[in-house]
Amino acid sequence: MTNLKNDRFLRACLRQDVDRTPVWMMRQAGRYLPEYRATRGRAGGFLNLCKTPELACEVTLQPIDIIGADAAILFSDILVVPEAMGMELTFGVGEGPRFPQPITCLADVKNLPVPDPEDELGYVMKAIEAIQRGLDGRVPLIGFAGSPWTLATYMIEGGGSKTFSKIKAMAFNEPATIHLLLEKLADSVAAYLNAQIRHGVQAVQIFDTWGGILSTRDYQDFSLQYMQRIISQLIREYRGRRVPVILYTKGGMGWLEAIADTGCDVVGLDWTIDIDIARQRIGHLVALQGNMDPSMLYAKPDRIRDEVCNILERFGHGNGHVFNLGHGIMPDIPVEHAKAFIKAVQEASPRYHDQ
């Protein structure tokens, strides 16, 4: 694999010294970029874009070329895993993801296989290889997957939900069914992430988007333990380099100690906690990623810079910080504001590092 010219992100994930704080954005390859919209138009749809390696490569590289992020993140979707398990997945025009035949009973779960990522998800592996050729060592590549609980919400609800009534009813009324599904998903995600690592990603992130809808006890029971099951199976060192694992639970800021105790290297923070408080609680155990409010990117560049400086000051001097938003960038953010965000971190952060 090509030697990295910029390894700040990987070093920060491992709480090693860096000359400035690295920065990237969740959903940085996305609709706020005109170049992304043009590529998606050529693909003829979102799933086609995910499944065409050369186009997935193109949109992965766009934010590296355009806004100058310190890491690339594989362009794909968390729901390719349940699709690989045999569930039909659709993305309607102007609509979110849909599973026309959602999981409704134990028999449905028993019929789900654990997919071979080299086969059913081979297009992702081809995309990773193409991306690494295109990056040519400029920055690291992050792979990712959804948490078992988050994937299960879509598979049982049939798509997005405001109440999550179906999955919670199943969790409370048929716990054996939901646990079997979460076990299969955990093993599927672990195999998928390991395949990503073997094909060239240098770090992985688990997105637990909907863990925060659970109570503390239910979060431990239905979400956290299955992310820990994934982490216990992951390749942690590959070709002589540590592979950092980032765990991000949106709405999970009350459970930071339990999240840090999973064995992950980095805890992703949403914007509902001050980063200095998070550092006091778990900064001696893990690196922190985050955590500017994504809506701040609607502000003028000077205000964005002020907020970047505020978060850097709150984190303070030293290592172990990967700057990011507290959730994904919104699709109607002006590109110039995204650029201003990246530039502000790169210019303002060196004073917090010794090198």
Characterize the structure shown.
This protein has 355 residues and is α/β, with parallel strands linked by helices. It has a single domain (8-352), classed as TIM Barrel. Helices cover 46% and strands 12% of the residues. It is built from 15 helices and 11 strands. The chain has helices at 8-13, 34-43, 46-51, 53-66, 80-84, 106-110, 122-135, 148-157, 165-173, 175-199, 216-233, 256-260, 275-282, 301-315, 335-348, and strands at 72-73, 90-91, 97-98, 141-146, 203-208, 237-238, 241-242, 245-249, 266-268, 287-292, 321-325. A 7-stranded parallel sheet has the order 1-4-5-8-9-10-11. A hairpin with a 2-residue loop joins strand 6 and strand 7 (241-242). Helix 2 packs antiparallel against helix 4 and helix 14 runs parallel beside helix 15. The chain is globular and about 60 Å long. The two termini are 27 Å apart.
- Sketch the topology as an H/E string, one letter per element: HHHHEHEEHHEHHHEHEEEHEHEHEH
- Average pLDDT number: 97
Strand count: 11
Q: Low-confidence stretches at least 5 residues in length (pLDDT < 50)?
A: none
Number of helices: 15
Provide keyphrases for this structure.
single chain; 355 residues; alpha/beta; TIM Barrel; seven-stranded parallel beta sheet; 15 helices; 11 strands; 46% helix; 12% strand; globular
Briefly summarize what is shown:
Helices cover 46% and strands 12% of the residues. With 355 residues, it is of the alpha/beta class. Strands 1-4-5-8-9-10-11 form a seven-stranded parallel sheet. Strands 2-3 form a two-stranded antiparallel ribbon.
